[in-house]
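question for whoever is on the cluster today: can someone run the full assembly for these? two chains, 848 residues total. i dont have access anymore since they changed the login thing
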Amino acid sequence: MTSAISVSKLVKTFGATRALDGLDLEVATGEVHGFLGPNGSGKSTTIRVLLGLLRADSGVVRLLDGDPWRDAVALHRRLAYVPGDVTLWPQITGGEAIDLFGRLQGGLDPRRRAGLLERFDLDPRKKARTYSKGNRQKVALVAALASDAELLMLDEPTSGLDPLMEAVFQECIREVRAEGRTVLLSSHILAEAEALCDRVSIIRHGRTVQSGSLTELRHLQRTSVVARTERPVSGLESLPGVDDLRHDDGQVYFDVDADGLDLVLRHLTSFGVRNLTSAPPTLEALFLRHYGNEEVDNGVSSRGKPVRS
Amino acid sequence: MSTRLVSAGSTTVGGTAALLRFALRRDRIRLPVWIAAGTFMVVTQSVGSQALYDSADDLAAYQASVGSNAATIALGGPPVGLDTVAGAVAFDISATVMLIAALMAMFTVARHTRADEEAGRTELIRSARVGRHAPLLAAVLLSSAACVAIALTIGAATTASGLPALGSFVLGASVGACGLVFTGVAAVAVQATGHTRSVYGLVGGLFAVAFVLRAVGDIQRSWVVWTSPIGWAQATHPFTDDSMLPLVLCVFVAATLVAAGFLLLDRRDLGSGLLQPRPGRPAAPRTLLSPLGLAVRLHRGALLAWTVGLGLLGLVYGALAESVETLIGENDQALMIFGNPDVDQLVDAYLATTFAVTALLASAYAVSAVLRVRAEESGSRAEPVLATATSRAAWLGSHVAVALLGSALAMAASGITTGLVRAAQTGEASAFGRMLAAATAYVPAIWVVAGVAVVLVGLVPRQAQALAWTAVGVLLLITMFAESFDWPQWVGDLSPIAWTPTRPLEEWTAGPLVGLLAAAAGLTALGFAGFRRRDLITG
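^ ran it for u. tokens below:
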């Protein structure tokens, strides 16, 4: 078994709304896979189909070599899930909820549970109605991480956590990966995906627009350059691959494709470079390219060819 | 609403006007439905009674049978003015409509205060220029306005239905005044507890206490009736005395309670109640660690309340039986009507009939327990459970099991209390068994109603809540009106409760009960099949 999750051409409609419109997703066993997309792009819907909570209209969905709708109960013994918006029963304490989820999904390790409570700094005696969003999220995280599920499905698991707790979370995910378990991590926090994920899939409007390792996606991207020169720069606009060019206070700002970088640098040196900053494209830039308006302006295909690894 | 909120002043009630407009908008369907429902009941009663008692003889018979019957007095009100059709209408319907007004007030106040606070919406609103007291004030004003509206609508509609105008408006005002008192009760209750459901439990419980007090007072014709706000509201005696004086007491008490609500509001933090939650268990007990364990835990508060409530109701029914005995024994006319049977048997028959009302309440409980499934589902609490190795059937089954066994338990509780009282009254131990059997005979009928709710949850989840409560409402109308107004037989047959043989007046046969059980099983199975095939609906 090499694929923990394999989805192809998945379609799910709600009335007139086409929430998933031919989505593809491949998650290899043992990897941490980032599932990225803006709110409303279909991340949670995909996860709910994978959990057998929603029934796919069409497409092929395989989860741990099973059918998530038909084999739901058997598959759920092997996975743990953290919803994006954790709602608990107001009158039940955090500790009780952790034990309940743990038992229902097939047991959890009490020592690991105690360790996680400490690391996440969670008081298990409080009733859920007094918990903040972050604390409710910790309850679900502790239950999932204390299990020995081979697949963790985490839907924006850190949206309520403070930076300190997010660091703890990242540490936990690295441990999970070291144990050879698989993680599907949906997120729109890009730094998190950059820090944790082996590969990512980016979706928009219920369709996968790109997927691959961060390195693979990065080479498609451009570099942002800020340069201060002795003489005002001219002629950049005529070079291939240069965009968003502007001059300001003796500095020049622009983006350039990887292919055009060499030529641009040669051109710049002729004006006497005194200072040069270049930034590698962040995942934010990837996002902007897919969800911002410039993709249309730049003539980049808005259909977005999926990149397969 | 956001821009309007900012325009308010900086006092503790600043922003009330904007909140009130917003609340009116949120409730633009809800409140008219409450008001229309209350008005509809009075008008139906008025039209029906005018058709039924078209001769003086009919009315005299009515007065003889109803006006001296402790059970109808317990459920209705003071037996005043029963020699007129209008007085009979007020007697028959005022208590029910007052319940509607009280519920309307409770839901309105809690919805715009504690429910918003619990959901975190109040925090957002209060961060704008909205005073500390503004949300409660807006809720109280909205509820009061609704009470005035239901008073006027009942007055106008009842006048239009052909009853005297003055009495019609006094009846409306009594209903509205009862609503005002419970507006005040709710204003205090929402401060006491941090949880909307507990507010409903608290106010509902207080209404029940007030109702029992007035029932006792009306039957004994004693001062006890003056300990109950429902008693005050009914003391206007519409169409007979038309005295508005008792309503002053209602308004005064309502105002005092609202003032107390504001005082208590100042003594607590946003989001919390006066009763602070204690720390709970750090780990789950074994009993919680299964779908059924979870369901029992989630339902146990409501189940306990309903069981105690129906048990108390059974106690009241049983206690009233002695007055019934005396009345029937003394009333030759009544004995003639019933063909001179054994008085004990007649009392048993009266009690068995009153269990039909209890069965209606137990059905309401069963429906509310089944609908908990939808609340769990749309509140996103079902999702994490169904993402574990818990099958849909096991999860739905756990809630349905609590609904079925819980409603049977509540019904049995009323049979047990009535039976105990009856056994003590008559000195015959066998009375206990007879009462328990008469009460539990309704269980299959209750399960059919629960089965309807399961089908709705399984097949039309989004409409399930509205349709299920509509069904309970129809059941209520049939139980209240079908027999007395000679509605066609098939209408009465729609109610599974009517299929249950009423012992000992009717011969006990297993047939209807087996039929009802089969129907309940079929409906439940259909609902399960639907639920397993459909998408989980979140949000």
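summary bc i know u wont read the tokens: Confidence is low (pLDDT under 50) at residues 1-9 of chain B. Chain B touches chain A through 37 residues (CB under 8 Å).
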